[in-house]
């Protein structure tokens, strides 16, 4: 969740120009890639261990 907030608030690429615009935009997409990687890892882990396989959960 903090990554989503950082994407929306901290990377104000919409109001910048020149090199600052591209640096903020790059950081924005880096956070987007981080979120996508975490979602993908979670989905792959869930596919590997489906519910009801006897594995202990907390």
TrEMBL record:
- Segments passing through the bilayer: 20-41
**Keyword line:** Membrane, Transmembrane, Transmembrane helix
Q: Which domain of life is it from?
A: Bacteria
Q: What is this protein called?
A: Membrane protein, DoxX
Q: Which species does the entry assign this protein to?
A: Burkholderia cepacia
Its ancestry begins with: Bacteria, Pseudomonadati, Pseudomonadota, Betaproteobacteria, Burkholderiales
């Amino acid at each position: 969740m903090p990554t989503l907030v950082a994407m929306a608030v901290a990377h104000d690429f919409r109001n910048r120009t020149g090199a600052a615009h591209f640096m903020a935009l790059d950081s924005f997409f880096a956070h987007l890639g981080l979120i996508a990687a975490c979602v993908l890892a979670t989905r792959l882990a869930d596919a590997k261990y489906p519910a009801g396989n006897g594995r202990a959960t907390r």
